[in-house]
User: Fold these one by one.
Assistant:
Number 1:
Amino acid sequence: MASKDVQQQQEDRLNSGGSTGMGAWLWHRAKPYTPPWIVTGGVGAAGFGANLMWGESPWAGVGLTLASTALTAATWWAGKSTGPQRRLHSAITVAAGSAWLTSAALSGPFTGPLPDLYLMGGATLALSWNIRQVMRSSAPEGSGESSDKGLLEKVGLARTKLKDVRVEPNRVTVPYELPAGELTNDDVAKAIPRIASALDVPTTAIRVQHDPDSARKGQFVIVPEDMLKTPTMYPGPFAPGQSIAVPLRIGVYDDGSDLVLPLLDAIHMLVMGMTGSGKTEGALDLFFELLTRRDVAVWLSDAAKGGQDFLPLVPALDWAALDTPSAGAMVAAVQAVIPARAAWLRDHSYRAWEPAAAETQTDPAHSCAAAGACGCDGMPYLVAWFEEAAKLLRELGDDVFTGIAQEARSAGVSLVISMQRASGYQLSTDTRASLPAAMCFGVRGDDASFALPEEVLEAGANPAAWGNKRKGYVYMVSAGVDEDLYANPARTFWTGPSGEYEKAAAWIVAQFAGVRPQGTGTVTEAAAAQAAGKLFADRHARVGAPVAPAAPAPSVTDEQESARAVAELVDEEDAGLDATAELPTAGGSAELPAAKPSPEEARELLDELVAMLASVGPGTVAVRDLYPYLEQIGRDRSWVSKRMSKLAEEGRLAPTGEEGVYRLIPTLAGV
């Protein structure tokens, strides 16, 4: 642009004048092209004068020859910063002019072929510069290849070839080819901040798409204007009443295209973003989509905030674990339903969950019966969403979700872990490797390296540039999404300010109540009830949903109530003893028997033993495992069996498929 301004100033000076008429107009149009001709005339005059001064001096010939050589070399050196065509053209012009001048000075301008060379060669060179000037008026050199080369040299990508540039609205695509053996695509990724500085745009406006078949080819994608500054209001459901197999629309990319999540391809997902980055807003967009589909049930765990951000949507959720006991029970329930769902799919000849699995099984090809259709109830897809999962990870261990993520792939279960900051200290590498999809909102520093693949960060993704200053801005990585979009910034929909969001949520809850599946299917609910007990069976009552009133208890007399209270204090083994009988006398030399633990002490001791045995084993404990400790507990096998059944009813143990074997339900701090 600077060279174009200088050229225009020169033409303005040349075109200045006050004469009028046709001659003046012609002269006005011709003046910009006169400099090459003036220089040609000046060279002829200089040759004539040099001959008069040095025509008889051999030393002058030597000096002029050296001077013409030096002048040509200086021209070639000075043209280094220009394009190769202009550099070569200038050097040829200077070499030809200085050679003629030297010959004319030594032998005379009218000797031999010198006059013809002057007239033909001088006119040719002058016309060549006029032609170049005409061509430059339509394509200024300052904006062409030379300026591109200069920019690339500044940012450390010298000798890079730029190919056909494709210009679209607010998007410029520039294919590149690096010099073979000198640079790789890794060097391009490192140069992104410098390119952004040279173009005066944010680093997030530049991304690189590498050619998968080459280590030195790819293309720059430059989006100079941030089209996401103004949030896009939630436009309504993308596919209301359709299957969860249809992708979920949750926002827009910076080029205006839809941000969609193909959940069945993503399977499991990590959602990460610092406070104020818009992570919750993105979660609401996903819930709005999930709760309008016909074949998906949603479980939400949010013990950290008690479901504060999701309360208007709770009536539409199949299970909302909003307290610490329910959150621990949900983890155990998800672990339990996976093998049950996988067995159901296997028995009905499904290799993986598909929309047909959610319908009544009327297809003989998907039947658990020996012949014909079985007519079994369908099994909806299940999304288990753990909001602010850092608390669960601290209390239950960093590998609590590992088995779920690894085993749920083909069982029609998606695990979503949402947290402000994921790291190797909170989430095991095995679990992170089992979460193939990720949504990364604004973060601090290099936290994004745990959510986004290295190649996406090298391509220009930089959520740390947003922090919490760009609410809702997000990068999404998932199977089923074009890899070229991984490094493209997007922004989730805005569900509206306080008051408007509640109205939208209430509309979703009421409008699609008849669309959503009623429950998660017999198989899933049976397995969850076994694992979580009353915490699952009474899940609607625990979040304030209306339940049927309990039948009134029969009236009892004061004497009956007193007898019942006394009976509860008597241990089962002591129920047959006569409280009025005298105690036996002990002999002088007989040893007193060890004191039998009280009922409360026996229960506490059993709880400790159960926790100990489950911690050193596979997470399960059997009644037979406690037989060596009966004397220590002071109770018999029957008491231990009844007590473990009681713990299962209270939701502290979960029955398994094996008789007398229970799974320990994780218990969170503060329970």
Number 2:
Amino acid sequence: MSHSVLNRREVSFQLFEVLDTDKLTRRPQFSEHSRETFEATLDTAEKLATDLFAPHNMQADKHEPTFDGEKVSMIPEVKAAFDAFAQAGFIRGRLSFEEGGMQLPETVMTSAMGYFTAANPATTGYPFLTMAAANLIRTFASDELKERFLEPMLNGRFSGTMALTEPHAGSSLADIRSNATPKEDGTYSIKGSKLYISGGEHELTDNIVHLVLAKIKGAPAGVKGISLFIVPKKRVDSSGQVGEFNGVSLAGLIHKLGYRGTTSTALSFGDDDECIGYLVGEPHQGLRYMFQMMNEARLGVGFGSVVIGYQGYQYSLQYAKERTQGRLPSAADPAEPPVAIVEHTDVKRMLLAQKSYVEGGYALCMYGASLIDDQHTMENESDRQKASLLLDLLTPVIKAWPSEYCTKANDLAIQVLGGAGYTREYPVEQYWRDNRLNPIHEGTNGIQALDLLGRKVWLNNGQGLMLLQEEIAKDIKASGEMTKTMATQLENTLTVVNRTFMVLADAMKIRGPDVTLANASCFLNLFGHTIVAWMWLRMANVAADKLAQAQGSDVAFYQGKLQAARYFYHWELPLTERDARLLQNLDETCLSMQPEWF
């Protein structure tokens, strides 16, 4: 049984009907583009993903990279896919024409990347990290460093990583011990170790450019003393020639539950030989620079969760339509032929839940991508600032909500297949394993909850929250007869969110952050579900408007949108009442639990 990498009808709906991406061609930045060039980009991505990425997804999972003490080996299909991706120009797709790029909107690039991640998330990890690392160097590094490292990364000759985590510190970057000693020639000697570095060692490219967080000796304590360094696997001279190894050693490969085709590495810097690093930007500003790559990665993790969840949904849906078993309660006569399991109500429930999670998450991530386009290309500075405020506020949600609920979708896909879903002969178990990393990736979802409630909602005196409510109010006002009940329910939920926020604001002043943030995960769930309910109202409004004139398969498509929206409002949104109650009561059950009581 086979299925398409992604449902092109869904991609087009999100891109051109919900977001109306065509209108971007009226902005100077994208004026040389058209609907046709956007579609051609998606065509290329779909073909490459289908032909070169999807076929070795299961193979890369079964035959993960190996390390013989000298080099890392992996199946050859990974390099063929990476090289084709680079040659097609996707690594530099967002860049301007003057920089050799395709000057594509973020919404179109995100849609294109969805095909690759859906087809093979592990192989896509290598170009994804390279793109994000190259963008950081492009933004913050000196011209000399750009000349030395950027172009080879953009053409796929070098790859990139982000090296943050250390064995003793985990997500607590304030406690990193990697250090940098200045040298007379302006470079630095780097010494330290990093753990869980994706793509940290391989033979896919001529060189690997590590972006390493370290502290210059004598730097301030904590995060204020962190600097950022370019540390290549092999040294690169001023003319761009790749030379000898640079003291970056692979201590070992880490074997993961999923994402097995992406090397996860433990690296040591400066143990076997001198390791030379190049300071990016100003000293002690490294975490600020790295946050650009981290936030890009967080948005990417959210969307990656969506499309992996979508893969499970598509496969389990097709399976449910083809697999016959049992009879309906109203027709239990064993003489009657069995029905396809998609006819059973509980299977419909599981499929509706998956659909509501993955398509709601898809809309959320695409909305985030549209904010990036607005942030960079809106003509009015005030509008650009508004987009930035909204994106800052929503980034923790875009990362965490899909990685939580689209992984649940993969779990439900296994359940739809029954015993077959738990076997390695079917792909749904791998989809779940691959997606299970994403609630941990780029800051655990608990950290995203603390970021949302501890920082993001308060920034700029809560302007982002006020802007968000204004945007939601527009779609509530735009609701028609078929979506009015949803709009009213969303309006009521917003009232609950506001009431909860006011309780927490008072608690922060009176009882301090420990009590206020004790149940931050509840706030993330309440807030995230509210945002996804908004996404479903947006989609339902479009579907209701289109349904009257729809023909052929579009009738069922729009009906499916409306039914999934009803599911989310009837089954999912009411679950936030528990979160609101715990938050408003400042529940201390978890906070007051003592370690010795476990």
